[in-house]
Design a protein that fits this description.
The protein is built from 3 helices and 8 strands. It is α+β, with helices and mostly antiparallel strands. It folds into 2 domains: 75 residues, Alpha-Beta Plaits (2-Layer Sandwich); 56 residues, Alpha-Beta Plaits.
Length: 136
């Protein structure tokens, strides 16, 4: 099984279409909605954790892009600004997925975006504001 977290950005014209339903029915993917935002103008984003066969995942991504949706891995939306990071480790207490961890050799805080679920708790917990989440 293949699993990947993606961010789908959409415009108001797509809101009424059953996009996530198609991922299940047409591409046999299981999903978990990790975050969703819709603005008053009805554009927004949804963060999905998709699981299924790799070939179905690849076909589904092509389908989403053919609808004009902006699709990217979640790892592109969450970053650690290493220039701001003071490696205090305060963010570690907030990270339930172990995406943030201490390198025992250098004692620096490192970030693994593939483990990140986009919960944004690290942003609130970082006194240096080194964790940045750019979803919109």
């Amino acid at each position: 099984m293949y699993s990947k977290k993606i961010v789908i950005r959409y415009e108001a014209d797509i809101v009424d279409k059953p996009v996530v339903y198609s991922l299940v029915k047409d591409f046999d993917l299981a999903f978990n909605i990790m975050r969703a935002r819709v603005s008053p103008r009805r554009e927004g984003l949804v963060v999905l954790d998709l699981t299924g066969k790799k070939k179905n995942f690849d076909r589904a991504i092509r389908y989403l892009k053919s609808l004009g949706l902006n699709v990217e891995p979640l790892s592109k939306s969450v970053t650690q600004n290493v220039d701001k990071c003071v490696h205090c480790g305060a963010c570690l207490a907030f990270c339930s997925t172990d995406a943030l961890y201490i390198d025992k050799n250098t004692m620096k805080v490192l970030f693994d975006p593939e483990k990140c679920n986009g919960c944004e708790l690290c942003v609130k917990g970082c006194p240096a504001r080194a964790m940045e989440i750019n979803l919109l």
